[in-house]
Amino acid sequence: MHARSGMNCVDCGKPVEPVAAALTTKIVSPQATEFRCLDCLAKVFSTSRERLLDAARAYRDRGCLRFQGIKF
Length: 72
Ligand SMILES: [Zn+2]
What we know:
By secondary structure, the protein is mainly alpha-helical. The mean pLDDT is 92. The chain has one domain (1-72). The chain contains 3 helices and no strands. The protein has helices at residues 18-28, 38-44, 49-61. It is globular, with a radius of gyration of 11 Å. Bound molecules: zinc ion. Zinc ion (ZN) is lined by residues 9, 11-12, 14, 36-37, 39-40.
């Protein structure tokens, strides 16, 4: 499933960043139906948004298509 645009975080209601949506389908589930913004995703995984962005960059560098063509 491709992440849709215009989603809001299920926890705080802020818009979900494209990279947060891509991380969700990568590390939570390709069929994820609940999306969180970077900050709330970091809380769920007990990490920081910087570490999530590092992970996203690593996936992008390995050629994961989810992370091509989005800015983060
Ligand atoms: Zn949030």
